[in-house]
Structures are given as structure tokens and as C-alpha cells.
Write a structure and sequence with these properties.
The protein is an alpha/beta fold. The chain is built from eight helices and ten strands.
């Protein structure tokens, strides 16, 4: 896997026997700024052979394929690559009943690919893979439990695409609350007196093509106010023709309540 702090996008290995679906998933993943390439193989045995030949940052697998199933592939991969992020993408998620099964996402539905890419990204970040970052100014967070990774759209309200598990330690919220739009970081976390100037500072840096960093006050789920330090930068993606489409970065505590 790409080491923490690396700036290269990630390489995805995709095991899928359906040619049409594999092409759709590949197109969706390759639109993401954090993905360097997607290598598709038709079955589990080919996936194992690919892992033997060269390293990958994560593995995405169908459940039902000729030969070994996705779960059997998972068992084999755990023996040889125990830290490799592994995700199942299947039309039959209820067939995955084991308590030790990998994260599983359902094919079909309006946001199936969106849920898959967000989940895969979050899993890679939690495993220690750093998203691509420009220089100067590395925006990959240190591997610590209270480091909150995030990826949001550069749009009004900064809608969250992915929020890392560190938000629970840092602020007491679940990542899904932001990803579902139930909470917004700017309105529900940033202190009211710090909202406007942090927004303006971020926009100024993004418009100039520069990374940003600043300290401000943040409100935890329990009501406590703490000081935090944030670093991030804009990244391209999707069909945005006017500047960066996304913002990626991390937030760390500075220590001490306000």
C-alpha cells in the first residue's frame, strides 16, 4: 500500500466477471481525484495472481464469480495481505451474513456507485493511505485516531462526500451524519464567530490554487468548544470546468477547551 504521507493517487484492483458492470465501476472510480488507476480482473484467482505480481492500495470484489467467491477471495487475501483494504460490491448483500465479513455495498439504486466510492475512500484513509496532495503543503494527516480526514464538494455549505472515523474521537459525531447531510461542518461544528473568516480564507486560498491552513474554534457533540487546526487543498474531479470541484484535508485538536 502507498505509505502514509505519500502523494500518489491510489491503485485499485477490481475483481468482477461482468464486463459491462466492470466498465461502469471503472469509469466511476477513475473520475475520482484519489484514484490513479483501476485494474480489472475477471475472477478471484486472477486477483490473487495480480496481487502476487505487484502492489495495490485496495481491492474491490464481486461476491459471486466463477471459481472462488468474493468471500473466499477475502479469506485468501487476509492470509497474504492482512492490511489491504477490501470491499465487496454485490447485488445480494444479505447473502453476506458473517460477522467478520468485509464492508459490503449493494449494486443498483440511485447512489450505489457514490456510496461505493465514498466507502472505499474512507476505508483506504482509515488504513493509512494518503490522498494525493500538491506541494508545497502536504494535506495527508498523521496516522492518529483523532485526525479527522474529510472530502467535500466545493459548493454552498461544503457538502461532505467522505468523513473519516477520526471525527468520532475528535468531535463525538458519526461520519455518516455528515455524509448523509444531517449535519454540516460549517454550520454545526465551526464556532459562529469563526464561520465567515474561515470560509473567506479557504476560498481565497482555493481561488489562488494554494493549500490552506488555520486554527479556529469547533463545537463538539457534547457542547464543549475546542480549538482545532485544519489543513486542506482543492482537488479537481467530475465535470467541473471552473476550478477545483472538491476540497480534501484534515482537522486536528490543538488541546485545551475554550
Amino acid at each position: 500500500m502507498t505509505s502514509p504521507g505519500a502523494t500518489e493517487p491510489l491503485r485499485v484492483l477490481h475483481a468482477e466477471d461482468d464486463d459491462a458492470l466492470a466498465e461502469v465501476v471503472t469509469l466511476a472510480l477513475e473520475r475520482e481525484a484519489w484514484v490513479d488507476s483501476v485494474v480489472r480482473v475477471p475472477d478471484a484467482e486472477a486477483a490473487l495472481a495480480a496481487l502476487d505480481r505487484e502492489p495495490y492500495d485496495c481491492l474491490l470484489s464481486d461476491l459471486e464469480m466463477p471459481g472462488l467467491s468474493g468471500l473466499e477471495l477475502y479469506e485468501r487475501v487476509r492470509e497474504t495481505h492482512p492490511s489491504l483494504p477490501f470491499v465487496l460490491f454485490t447485488g445480494r448483500p444479505r447473502a453476506v451474513r458473517r460477522g467478520d465479513a468485509p464492508p459490503t455495498y449493494e449494486k443498483g439504486g440511485a447512489d450505489a456507485l457514490g456510496s461505493l466510492t465514498r466507502g472505499l475512500y474512507r476505508l483506504c484513509v482509515a488504513a493509512g493511505a494518503a490522498v494525493a496532495a500538491p506541494t508545497p503543503g502536504d494535506t495527508s494527516a498523521p496516522a492518529r485516531p483523532d485526525a479527522m480526514f474529510y472530502r467535500c464538494r466545493r459548493a454552498p455549505g461544503w457538502p461532505a462526500e467522505v468523513v473519516g472515523p477520526g471525527v468520532t474521537v475528535l468531535l463525538g459525531y458519526e461520519p455518516e451524519a455528515f455524509e448523509r447531510g444531517e449535519l454540516t461542518y460549517a454550520e454545526d461544528v465551526v464556532h459562529p464567530e469563526d464561520r465567515q473568516w474561515t470560509h473567506d480564507a479557504m476560498e481565497a486560498s482555493l481561488s489562488a490554487g494554494d493549500p490552506f491552513e488555520f486554527t479556529y474554534r469547533a463545537r463538539r457533540a457534547d457542547g464543549d468548544v475546542i480549538r482545532v487546526w485544519e489543513r486542506g487543498r482543492g482537488v479537481p474531479g467530475g465535470d467541473a470546468a471552473d476550478g477545483d470541484a472538491f476540497v480534501e484535508g484534515f482537522v486536528l485538536p490543538l488541546g485545551g477547551d475554550e
